[in-house]
């Protein structure tokens, strides 16, 4: 079966609209739901907040029927699809990885600490908790309907606050004994990357740190994300390059040495190899997304 690849950049391109770091829609909007029914991976996070009716959701090999008061957080590169009924209502919030600048959000969502990936895929909320999260989501929808430079900043702020609330709720019910052996290795690998990616970029280093072979590490990464271990290391580095280009105010030389490159030209070569553009071109592109 074909698994499609979705990205915010591709989505906004089909709409002939400037690319944003987020996309928001309501489940009743048919065009989005048709696309969500297809099995796919995405290069962004997705939060689904169900308010009425039911939907059937597949994440990886697990299929779950969600009812009202449920929410779901889908992580980058997770294989997923969902089918909604005519009476289903809810809000979908999609956002990219670069949006996270706080260390807390980076560590929680990127490293998938404490097996949050399993807990956040499907979360049953109390009426009070659901109402609180829904209030944030409704406010985000309202901002999105009247976009301006200020509204975009407010959306990013509300997404972060909403996620912190969801993470806190998930932590209250985490049972780490449920972590599978393979997922445990993947979580530890992602955590090691967070600690060492600026200076350690070989698969051998991380495999040795985990006391497994490079073949096994690659197999685990492929099963979880369809990407190799080296791809994942490079993606983390590229995400930090993007953050620094847009938010740090540092020049290319400073960024290069902050991230362990021998020279600005080495940084240039890495970015060009991955994205077919220079750091300057990338900065201009990102500025249009995050600072317009």
TrEMBL record:
Keywords: DNA-binding, Transcription, Transcription regulation. InterPro entries: Homeodomain-like_sf, HTH_AraC. Residues 187-285 form the HTH araC/xylS-type domain. Signal peptide: none annotated. SUPFAM superfamilies: Homeodomain-like. It comes from the Bacteria. GO terms for molecular function: DNA-binding transcription factor activity; sequence-specific DNA binding. Coiled coil: none annotated. Pfam families: HTH_18 (PF12833). This is AraC family transcriptional regulator, transcriptional activator of pobA. The lineage of its organism: Bacteria, Pseudomonadati, Bacteroidota, Flavobacteriia, Flavobacteriales.
């Amino acid at each position: 079966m074909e698994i499609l690849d979705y990205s915010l950049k591709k989505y906004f391109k089909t709409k002939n609209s400037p690319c944003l770091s987020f996309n928001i829609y309501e489940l009743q909007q048919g065009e989005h739901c048709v696309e969500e029914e297809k099995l796919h991976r995405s290069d962004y996070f997705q939060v689904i907040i169900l308010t009425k009716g039911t939907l059937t959701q597949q994440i990886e090999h697990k299929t779950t029927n969600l009812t009202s008061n449920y929410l779901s957080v889908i992580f980058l590169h997770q294989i997923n699809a969902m089918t909604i009924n005519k009476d289903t209502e809810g809000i979908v919030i999609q956002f990219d990885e670069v949006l996270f600048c706080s260390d807390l959000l980076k560590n929680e969502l990127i490293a998938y600490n404490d097996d949050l990936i399993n807990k956040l895929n499907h979360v049953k909320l109390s009426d009070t908790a659901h109402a609180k999260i829904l209030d944030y989501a409704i406010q985000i929808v309202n901002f999105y309907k009247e976009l301006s430079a200020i509204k975009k900043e407010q959306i990013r702020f509300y997404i972060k606050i909403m996620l912190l609330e969801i993470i806190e709720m998930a932590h209250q019910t985490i049972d780490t004994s449920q972590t599978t052996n393979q997922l445990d290795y993947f979580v530890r690998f992602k955590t090691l990357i967070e600690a060492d990616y600026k200076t350690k970029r070989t698969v051998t280093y991380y495999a040795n740190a985990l006391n497994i072979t490079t073949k096994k590490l690659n197999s685990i990464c492929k099963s979880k994300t369809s990407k190799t271990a080296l791809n994942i290391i490079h993606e983390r580095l590229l995400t930090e390059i993007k953050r620094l280009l847009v938010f740090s105010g540092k020049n290319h030389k400073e960024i290069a040495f902050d991230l362990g490159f021998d020279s600005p030209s080495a940084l240039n070569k890495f970015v060009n190899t991955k994205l077919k553009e220079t750091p300057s071109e990338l900065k201009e592109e990102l500025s249009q997304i995050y600072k317009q």
